[in-house]
Design brief:
Length: about 325
């Protein structure tokens, strides 16, 4: 009987010492070439700031609802998947942010998948995809869709909820992209009807170089307008090509005008980015972000948007080629710029 009691007591102690599942996420790691002294993990309705030490290391805990979260280092961001009980360690070199980010530890499979998915997005959806005719567009989308499906199949230990969500999203991708393609083609037809008509005007937009600038101030020159924002990844991706075009045409009769539609709260961020990225051309700040008369006049619902206006203020193209598109030079040549 005594031995039985000892065994029961030992069993009870063993049960009592069993580690309970954590009701929080442990997040740690190291950032090489850090952009800030803090990180932010956020989603709609949730935000947590994490201190980054001088050597780039960080460590904190977060109590979360299971799902997708944005991880922001002060300059760039990525998507991660969090669930209470995860113990994630993150490694990043900001000089190759998306390419270098890796996760290890409990729950890392899901976030590693999302990191690979974002890289695949960048390489799959090129700027000229929507220039294809419908038949070739469908063929290309089928190839892209297979790429995402194959990637998902390589990750065997994803959270079940994430796996179900991604499987559904991939199955719906072709139909959704085709619908968007048709909308864009209809918009192109609509914008083509604007050719030759007077351009909607911007009036007294703040000029980063000082004072204000209106469209009418630029009459006598061709005007290539870039509508963008500091938070827009595709906009920022066009900056190197835009700077190259500006240099190539610096002595021609054309003005390169970049109009930021950042909200007023990001005004200082706009000014800072102009300095940090050494932006050229004429840098203007729209008077009412998306609701500015110029933006609404061109029915702009997505950015970047590029516009070419002639010397008399009439529209040449309401949806001009991007700087990275060789077709832009062809358009300039067509008008003898």
């Amino acid at each position: 009987m005594k031995k039985l009691l000892i065994l029961c007591s030992a069993f009870a102690i063993a049960l009592g010492c069993k580690e309970e599942p954590k009701d929080y996420v442990t997040l740690s790691g190291k950032i090489i070439n850090k952009n800030s002294d803090s990180l932010m993990v956020r989603t709609r309705g949730y935000s947590k700031t994490i201190k980054v030490n001088e050597n780039g290391t960080f460590n904190d805990t977060l109590k979360v609802e299971t799902g997708f979260y944005n991880f922001f280092d002060g300059k760039e961001s990525t998507t991660m998947y969090l669930k209470n009980g995860y113990n994630l360690s993150i490694s990043i070199d900001t000089k190759e942010f998306d390419e270098s980010i890796t996760y290890s530890g409990n729950g890392s499979e899901s976030s590693n998948y999302l990191a690979k998915r974002e890289l695949l997005k960048e390489t799959s959806f090129s700027s000229d995809l929507f220039d294809l005719d419908e038949e070739n567009f469908k063929i290309k989308v089928a190839e892209i869709n297979k790429g995402f499906s194959d990637l998902l199949g390589k990750f065997k230990n994803l959270d079940s909820t994430l796996l179900a969500t991604e499987t559904e999203n991939i199955s719906k991708m072709p139909e959704g992209i085709l619908s968007y393609y048709k909308q864009q083609k209809a918009k192109v037809t609509q914008l083509a009807e604007l050719i030759g008509k007077p351009s909607p005007k911007f009036i007294d937009y703040e000029n980063n170089a000082g004072g204000t600038t209106s469209l009418d101030d630029l009459k006598g020159k061709y005007i290539y307008v870039d509508v963008w924002a500091t938070w827009c990844g595709p906009c920022i991706a066009e900056i190197p090509s835009l700077k190259k075009i500006e240099t190539q045409y610096h002595d021609k009769n054309i003005e390169f005008v970049s109009i930021s539609i950042d909200r007023i709260r990001d005004h200082e961020k706009w000014k800072k980015m102009i300095v940090e990225k050494e932006l050229g051309g004429m840098q203007l700040f729209a008077d009412n972000d998306w609701n500015s008369a110029f933006v609404k006049g061109y029915s702009i619902q997505g950015i970047p948007r590029f516009i070419l206006i002639d010397t008399e203020g009439h529209i040449i193209s309401a949806n001009a080629p991007r700087p990275s598109n060789p077709g832009l030079i062809g358009l300039f040549n067509e008008y003898g710029i």
